[in-house]
Design brief:
Largest sheet: 6 strands, mixed
Oligomer: single chain
Strand content: 15-25%
Helix content: 25-40%
Number of helices: 31
Radius of gyration: 25 Å
Strand order of the largest sheet: 6-5-18-17-16-7
Structural class: alpha/beta
Distance between the termini: 30 Å
Length: 784
Amino acid sequence: MSDDVDARGGTAFGLMPDEPRQGGYGPRTSAAWSRKPYRHPAAGWGAAKSVGQVLLREREPIAGSGAMLIMNHGVSGYDCPGCAWPDDPGNLRLDICENGIKHVTWEMTHKRVDRQFFAAHTVAELSEWTDFDLEDQGRLTEPMSYDAASDRYVPISWDDAFALIGDELRGLSSPDEASFYTSGRLSNEATFLYQLMVREYGTNNLPDCSNMCHEASGRALKASLATGKGTADLRDWEECDALFVLGVNAASNAPRMLTALSDAVRRGAQVVHVNPLVEVGATRTIVPHEFVDMALFKSTATSTMNLQVRLGGDLALIRGMAKVVFEAAEADPAVLDSAFLRAYTNGLEDYRALVDATPWAELVRQSGLSEERIRDAAAVYLGSERTVISWCLGVSQHEHGVDTVREIVNLLLLRGNVGRPGTGPSPVRGHSNVQGNRTCGIDHRPPAWTDRLAEVCRIDPPRHPGLDTVKTIRGMHDGTVKVFVGMGGNFVLAAPDTPYTAEGLSRCRLTVQVSTKLNRSHLVHGEKALILPCLGRTERDQQAAGPQGVTVEDAMSMVHLSVGRKRPASAYLRSEPAIIAGIAKAVLPDSGTPWDDYVADYDRIRDVMAQVLPGFEGFNARIRNRHGFRIPQPARERVFETESGQAEFSHAPLPDVIPASAETLVLQTMRSHDQWNTTIYSSNDRYRGVKNLRELIFLNEDDMRARGIAEGDPVDIRSTSKDGSTRLVRAFRAVPYDIPQGCAAGYMPELNVLIGHADFSAQSDQPLMKSIQVTVTRSAARAA
C-alpha cells in the first residue's frame, strides 16, 4: 500500500523548493536559499532587529511598541497570545519576547480580509496560495458562508450563521456525530462556556491541541502523582540547585524562559539541556530587558551541560541516572530520601529491581550517550539538594512518552524532589492557555467535576468518553463525524497526515472555523462551511455591562486577568464567549442556561466557574489581585490522590528506539524560529542559520556521506507507517547539522504529511511527530 505525497507540482501540502510557490507554506521569495551557522547568543540585538522588521512590515511601529509596555502586565494589560510561560512578577514592564511581539503585531495588522476580498477570489484559487500569503492578507472582518455554486465565501449575518449551525446539529441522529475542537487560545471563560454547550448538547467530543502535544505528560503525571500538571512554579525554578531541561528549544518555543535559565546559571545552579540538537537557547543569551548587557553585547550562559540524546533516548538517560543513584545509595544510604520514600511512595523496590536488571550496554545504546556522560548527568543530580526537571514535546511526542515522563517522576521521587521548595516536575506548555483549556473542561474524557457541573448548571452531561483528535479525524473519514467546529487554530495543518485530515474535513456536512485570520482550514471545507471572525487577545471586548476581561492559566498553574484595549479590527467581530452563546442558543432552543446573561458580564461566568471548578473558589475577587492566583495542587503539598494514596513508581520496560534497518532514520518535526505553531512569519530560521528555505531536512554528516548526499542536494524522504503504508515528499534540501547519527529533523507543517493516520502512541493517542521512521535518498530527477 502506498499513499505517496508527491511534493512536485505545487499541491496544497508541499512543493519543490526551487519551483514557483503555489500552495506551499512560507512566503514567496526569489532569493536563493543559504545556510550559515549562527555564532551569536539567543535574543539580544538579533531579536530586536527581527522585531523592528516585523513592526515596520505590519506598519505598526507605534502601536506595536506601545503594546510591549502592557503585555503580560497584570490586571492592567493583556496576556501574550503566544506561549504559556509564566509572568515574572518582578519584571512586568518588559516581560516580553521576540515571538510574543511578532504574534501581537501579526494580530494588530492594518490589512483586512473583507467581502470584497472573497468576491475577488474563488476557494480553488486561494487553495493555490501559500499559507503565508493566506494569513498575510490580514484580519477577517465578518461572518462568511461557503457558496458551492460560485466556489466563493459570501457574507452571512451572525443570526443566519448561528441558525445554520443549529439546523445542522439538531438534524444529526446523535450528538456524537459532531466534534468540537479547540486550539490553545480560548480564554478560561470561553472554554467553560464551550464545554458547557457541548455537554449540554450531549457529547464529550472535545478534541484539542493537547491531544497532539502534552497528552502524554498529563496521563503520566496523573498516574504517578494524581495531577495532570507539573508541581513546580517559577519560584521553584528560582530556588533549585539543578535544572534539567529535556526536549525544549527555549529560544524559539518559550523565549522568556531564557531569563530563568540565565538567572539560574548566574546564581550557581547547574542547568543541563537534553536535546538531540544543541539549540542556541541552550548555550548563551542576552536578556532584552537588561539594558546594560544589551548595550555592551554582554551575554550570559544558559547551560552548564548539554547532552545530545538519540531521538526517543530520554528514558534510557533517566534510567541510567537512576542506576547511578542506586549505586551511590549502596555506599551512602542517605543519597535516597528514605523518610519521604517510606511515607509517600509506592513501588520503590520493584523499580530498584528493574533498574538493577537494566544493563549499561543497553542504556548506552538506546540513549546514544556514553556511560561517562550519563554518569556526569547523574553527578549533577546527586550534587543537588533541590532539583527541577522540565520537558516539552521532545519527550511527549513519542510512542513511549507516558513511560518517559513517569521515569522522570521516578528519578525525582528517589531524592524527595516533589512537594518541597525548589523541586518538582515542570512540563513546558506551548500555547497560551492550553493548560487552562484542560482545567476548565476541554477534555474528551468527562472531568472529575462532571457531577458538580450537572448540579450547578442543571444539565445532564454525558458520562461516556468522546473523541480525541486522532479519533475525530478517523470519524470524519468513516462518516461517523458529520459536523466539525474549530475554535481557533489551523486544524488541517496542525494535525498529522495532512492529506488524510483534509479529506476527512471535506467529507463533513458542515465545517465551522472561528478565527482571526484566513488559513488553510477555511479552504479545506465540508459541504457547507462557515468562517466566524472573533476578537483577538489585544482587542477591546465591549459587552452590555462594559469592557470585559478574560483569564488564562499559564504553564505553572497561575491564573491571571487579560484585558484587551485596542479598537477591534472590525465592528462585526464578536468575542469567543458571544460566538459560543450564539451557537448554543441556536442549537439548544429550550436551554435553561442564561447564555445572554453570561455574555453581558463575564463575572457571571466566573461566578459559576467558582462553584464548579476545584480551586476557583472566590474567582472574581482573586482574579483582581495584581498577579492573579495559583490553583491549589494537592501533589504540591505531598497529598497524592492516587488509588494507593501515594506517589506511584512506574515499572516500564526500556523501549527500543533504534530502527531495525540501518538505512532507516528517525525524524522529528519541529518549528523554525520564525514561526509560531502553523503561522510562518518568514522562510528564515535565524538560530539554525537557514535563509529562504523551509523544505529541508537536517541530517548528521556521517549519515549524509553514507548515502552519498552532499549539502544542498535535493532528497526524497519516504516514511513507513504502522499500517504498512508509505508516504513520500520529494526534493527537500539536505542540510548538515549537529545531530546524533541515525536522527534527522525538519519543519512542521511541511513534514506532517509523513505521519500516517495510524502513527499514534498506544500510551497517549498522540501522533508520533518526534518519531517518524524514514529513508532518505538523493532525488533521482535532480541528482544530475
